[in-house]
Amino acid sequence: MFSLTSPVKSPYHNVPPGPKFFLLMVASITLFLIGNIYLQAAALAFVLGLYLLPGGTFFKEGLRMLWPLWPFVGIVFLWHAFTHDILPGLIIILRMISAVALANLVTMTSQLDEVIALVTRVVTPFRRFGLRPQILALSIAMFIRFLPVLIEKGGLLVQSWRSRSTRPAGWRVVVPLALLALDDADTVAEALRARGGIEPDKI
Amino acid sequence: MGQLISNNGRVSIQGVSLVKSGHAILNEITLDLSTPRIGFVGRNGSGKSTLARVVCGLIKPDQGRVLVDDIDIFKNRRKALSKIGILFQNPDHQIIFPTVLEEMSFGLTQQGYSKDAVRQMVAEALAQFGKAAWSNRSISTLSQGQRHLVCLMSVLAMQPAVIVLDEPFTGLDRPITRQLTQILEDIDQTILHISHDLEALCTYDRVIWLERGTVQMDGAPQAVLPAYSAAMDAIGGQDVFADITG
Amino acid sequence: MEKNIVIIALFAALIAALGLVPKFTLASGIPITAQSMGIMLCGTVLGSRRGAKAVLLFLLLVAIGLPLLAGGRGGLGVFGTPWAGFLFGFPFAAFAAGLIMERWRSDNIPLVAGCAAAGGGIGALYLIAVPYYMMATSSGLDQALFTAMLPFMPGDILKAILAGYITAGLAKARPDSLLSRA
User: Fold this and answer.
1) What is the pLDDT of residue B240?
2) Phi, psi at residue B239, to the nearest 5°?
3) What mean pLDDT comes out for the span B85-89?
4) Does the beta carbon of A194 lie under 8 angstroms from any beta carbon of chain C?
5) Contact assessment for residue A100 and residue A11, using Cβ atoms and an 8 Å cutoff
6) Sheet strands side by side (includes B162-166)
7) Chain A interface, mutation test: which of C1, C10, C135, most A Cβ atoms within 10 Å?
8) CA nearest to B198, candidates B175, B231, B176, B159
9) Whole-model pTM?
């Protein structure tokens, strides 16, 4: 299962995820407090500068990750053009791009296992609420293990459909896929139990 | 079985190539398949399953084309459905609907037959196999072998000229496999059968050995199967856990 | 106990799979993602609590950087748009859908599941997504409705109906598969 971490090395890769997430939170809140268009433009320029630091390949990768924003930009622009209220619209758009770009930067420069470790650490104090770090780690591992399996089975069901119909495969294939997921759940639960199971929390 | 229309279709694979992530999965395959029973053997990863899907029009080749009875099965999907059908390994990855009737009706409805005609054709198909009582059975009440049969009946009901079998008997016990093999022996359609079960292919008209996307050997089963078998035994003597695709 | 944890993980994977299976679409030609339908299904099939947990696990995995959203999107960035209210609302949507499914004990599964899917996936979801949009853009209700509700409503109505059919299909194929009705 591949993640969105960038293979292009940057100085940011060496910073542990914890501080990066914290800085991101601070930066995002700051962005939301700024109502001045020039400051927003400067912020965006700064963020883009952060992307340029590791080089052209990294920068282009970052731009590619921002591309899916275009419909959102379009909708906001349309509304504000329609109501002759361009300036607030521009502020929203600039702020959005900066916030998303900063968040993407953290994602692109953090290794998956480091982030999972961070999450399990953060979750530890919530143990009393029933959320145990080991269970979370196990759930994540199971998800990553079974996602490709489900995608493959879904793909086979879609092929079964397409071998008998010229129409695109629709909602109908979700039923057998969900059943396969339920069956897989039974099998995996059995395997877990066979390996000792998950012990109830001893308080 | 005499009521099934005599339907011996002809498959023409013309210069089919397919590349994925830099690897040539299929390498300019050209085959003219017109005998009723043709087997395909090869290691996992040799491209057999991919070829099966290309031949059925489910995957588009990067180069080349496939004609079944002169119909380009990728360009003309509509007609292709009536020409070629496929049976996969696992009926649980193939059956979409909850009841036998719905599953068998699906392809026919998509071909454009009226509701009454579909009901009629499904009833006939079930009767031919002596399974008229299965009509309203829920798939979940059927055994693996029975599910395989449902898939087979669903494909046959569409009366294709060619049927592709992609290792459809994997995991079934011997008696069921023999029963299903017996059923397949009697049908008129051309069968392209991918199998690891060499015994099943020894009565076939032609066997093709696929290796890393190219045809390694092509001829009578008496010639190809022993050569293939020997080669597999030789590989078995080596370290099979080394990277196969390297 | 193990069963619960596993089923939650698998349905979280199912939500992701619905957006990643090749050549699978809900409406041909129109780019509607099936993932919000997956959210509804978590509620209608797993019930309120398990459904919500499955969705939370899914969101966590998106957040840590897996490209699970339709189009291969993921990471923290997807939480940075004014439409992130939808993402934050997803667990509530599943919870609400599950609750309706659990409480309304009619045998007409397609109807109940469809209404549950709509109640959760549209009602509860927009109740969170629209105000979030207003907050994030300091805009009025009219703008929020136009930019955060209008583009998605028709697709979501279709998805709720389909979720009803799918839930009914599951119940028909295997009656004890509906954990929301166990």
Assistant:
1) 59
2) -80, 100
3) 94
4) no
5) no
6) B84-87, B162-166, B190-194, B37-41, B206-211, B214-219
7) C10
8) B231
9) 0.89
